[in-house]
Structure formats: C-alpha cells, structure tokens
Specification:
Structural class of chain A: mainly alpha
Shape of chain A: elongated
Number of strands of chain A: 0
Shape of chain B: extended
Largest sheet of chain B: none
Order of helices and strands of chain B: HHHHHHHH
Largest sheet of chain A: none
Oligomer: heterodimer
Distance between the termini of chain A: 58 Å
Radius of gyration of chain A: 17 Å
CATH class of the largest domain in chain B: Mainly Alpha
Number of helices of chain A: 3
Helix content of chain A: over 70%
CATH class of chain A: Mainly Alpha
Number of helices of chain B: 8
Largest interface: A-B, 71 and 85 residues
CATH topology of the largest domain in chain B: Four Helix Bundle (Hemerythrin (Met), subunit A)
Chain lengths: 100, 177
C-alpha cells in the first residue's frame, strides 16, 4: 500500500506546477488551465485524507469543488471572450485600464 | 507490488502532463495534455477507493469543462501567445530572476516533501486504518450528500444557475437586446 505522504507530495507538486503556470504564462486561457490544475491537486489531498481517515466527507467536498470549478470555468471563459472582443488579445498585460 | 507500480506510473503521468501544460505555447495542446493529467488523477482516485470521484472526474472535468475550454480556444482562434515587447521586457522574464525563482520553488517542494516524509503517522499505508468498504460505497455517499450536506447541495444548484446567467450576460455582445 502507498503511504499517505506520497499522495500529499504528489498533490503539493501539482499545486506548485499550477501556481507557477499562473505566474509565468501570459495567456488568459493557460492561466485558467493552471487554476484547474491547482483545484485538482487540492481534490487529490481531500480524497487521500478521506481514505486515510475512513470518512466519506473528503469525497463529498471533492464533488462540491468540481461543481464550483465548472461554474468558475464557465464565467471565466465568458470573461475571456468578452475581453478578447475588446482588445483582440489574450495577454493579461493588455488589460491594464479599468474603463475604455 | 502492482499498486506501487501503478501509483508511480499515474503520478509520473500527472506531473509530466501538468508540466507540459504550462510549458506549451499553443493552448490547444495545453488543453489536450490537461485531459491526460485528469485521466491519471482518475486512476489514482480508483486506487484510493473513490470510484464515484474517479468517474465524476472523467465525466465532469474531461468531458464537460475541458470541452468548454477547447470550444473557447477554437472560437477565439488565437493559437500563439503574442510576443509583444512588454512581454519580453517584463522584469520577471529576465533570465537571472527566472532561474532564482525556479530554484526557490524547487527548494520549497523538496523541503515540503522531506517534512511530510518525517511525520511518522503519514508514512503508514493510506488504507491501513480504515476498511475500504466504508469509503467506496456510492450509496453511502449519496445518503450523506442528501442528509448531512443538503444545504450545501442546494446552494450549489443556485451557484450553477447564477454562473449560467452570468456567462450568458458576460459573453453577450453589447447592444444586443
């Protein structure tokens, strides 16, 4: 059997990759994808701890995280489309003014 | 040790695919690689006796959310990141700064890993303290969602409705009636 710490290390690594993506990439869609990587890393932690403690709540909160991620993706992508229409760009540095 | 082999296989697949997601310049490849990463995570959920989460991961994430992303990538038709001047001249893009930041990030992960390995109770097998039958029952999970977590479940439905309306309003062209 795999120790719990292996799952936690994998999850921490995935979260770090996602965070690095948010900081390094200059493309709104890739930034949203990096956020999804981070959400999945946290899901893995929840499920691993739930298995460790013998409790179903870890899986249930994962289910809720997935629904919130779906809502976040829908609204985030709608914002990306609206922004792209204004500037013809996906670079977050192109959107520096609050009003145009 | 087939369990250990599959764990490391899925873990390597998840980390490799996620790394490539943020290394790609074409968002189309990023989305497809992220689907591979989600498939690997789904295999890990099966190993953790969470069949419902594993299937939901495939259906909701790989099936619904990633298709939404693919749809937007194709709709916007902007395959490359723009190599604008402010992008290349960005202070965080300087090679020295980037290398220093990467070093710090790797150090942080190594430190975190060694700290986790040092905790003795985290190094017992993940399923040693509980029976697999207590966590892999979808029936028990449904019962818990609709009794103990009813409020959160209903709140989620309102959230989805609000997100749907919000997405339609945001993506609408200005001036449309």
């Amino acid at each position: 059997m795999i120790p719990l710490s292996y799952y936690l290390i994998l999850s921490a690594t995935l979260f770090a990759i996602g965070a690095a993506g948010v900081f390094m990439r200059r493309n709104l869609i890739t930034i949203l994808l990096s956020v999804e990587i981070m959400l999945n890393a946290v899901n893995l932690t929840f499920v691993a701890f739930g298995r460790y403690a013998g409790d179903l709540d870890g899986q249930i909160i994962t289910f809720f995280v997935m629904t919130v991620a779906a809502a976040e993706a829908a609204v985030g992508l709608a914002l990306v489309i609206a922004l792209f229409r204004h500037r013809e760009s996906l670079n977050p540095d192109a959107f520096t003014s609050l009003k145009w | 040790m087939p369990e250990t082999v599959t764990f490391f296989l899925f873990a390597a697949l998840a980390i490799g695919a996620s790394t490539l997601v943020i290394a790609q310049r074409n968002p189309m490849y990023s989305v497809l690689l992220l689907i591979a990463s989600f498939g690997a995570l789904s295999g890990l959920y099966i190993q953790l006796e969470a069949p419902f989460v594993a299937v939901a991961q495939i259906i909701i994430y790989a099936g619904a959310i990633m298709v939404l992303f693919l749809f937007v990538v194709m709709l916007l038709n902007a395959p490359k990141e723009d190599g604008a001047d402010w992008d290349r001249l960005h202070p965080l893009r300087q090679p020295g700064v980037a290398r220093w930041g990467t070093l710090l990030a790797v150090l942080l992960i190594v430190q975190l890993a060694s700290a986790l390995m040092a905790v003795r109770e985290y190094n017992t097998p993940v399923g040693a303290q509980s029976d697999a039958a207590t966590v892999n029952s979808v029936a028990a999970m449904g019962r818990s969602i609709f009794t103990r977590h009813t409020f959160a479940f209903e709140a989620t439905s309102i959230l989805i409705l609000v997100a749907m309306v919000g997405a339609v309003v945001l993506a609408r062209r200005e001036g449309d009636q």
